Amino acid sequence: EQVLHAHPRLLLDIAWALLWSGQVTALELHLLVAEHALADSTGSLPPILQRQTMQGELAAIRAELARQRGDVSGAIELAQQALASLPEDAQWLRGIVTGLLGGAYRLRGDAVAASRAYTETIRASQASDNVPVALIAMGQLAQLQAMQGQLHQAAETYQEALDLATRWSVTTLPALGVALVSMGEVLREWNDLDGAERLLLQGIEYCQQRGGLAECALDGCLSLARVFQARGEMDGALRMVQQAEQIGREYHYAARVTAFQAKLWLAQGNIQAATGWAARLQHELNVDGELAYKHLDGYVVLARLAMVRGE
Description:
- By secondary structure, this protein is mainly α.
- Helix content is about 75%, strand content about 0%.
- It has 16 helices and no strands.
- Helix 12 (about 235-250) runs antiparallel to helix 13.
- The relative contact order is 0.07.
């Protein structure tokens, strides 16, 4: 009853907190209530500019929700709708929305558009002193650069994030965890496995603080599993996959974890288990249609299975 009669601003603040921590079911309820509160003409409504800004926030949150569910086109459309609703001087919010747009472009596999959006997020967020979002965007940009093989650029972006964190005396925010996880992946690529393990453990810990950033924590767990795999420590790799599985189950990212598990089975020579996984996911992966970035690991498994069969 108290939630139903809460001020729209409070409902939106709760919705943002639920979004960052990946609590999708609770988030849906708060979004519906917030939409109702903004549309209720009988209540005490904020000024029109504030209402317009709040409507932009609602569209932004729904954009990220769509992205997490794999609706990339819907996410991009909602994020662009949010940007159109927000005033030009609302740099704090516009920085957040361009970051969400970057995530949608990344899921579509458009690294150029995603990098451009994250760069704009960094600019707008630093202009509005929104250090946590600037740090998240720097970490995401570094991760994109590392994925494209631009390891030195990724390291430079990571250093910029550290410098920003130092200037603002940020030491353990979840936002800093994104940069740590990204640099941990760079060190893994450079075969500095000990350095990678240290940064990844720290990054995972930061990302899970105070609700944190569930998806990045999952990235860190899978990257650390690769570190253990590179050392031949399969028990450690499986332990990190189990930790990632727990995060994935709780925050609806399970598909990525199962695909990574199949990659480990292949590395262990367990062709039967990997083949069974591929058979169960054959319809969802749909290799005859347009490939989806979220199934990247799954496609790699299918390609390796085909190689095993001599195809």
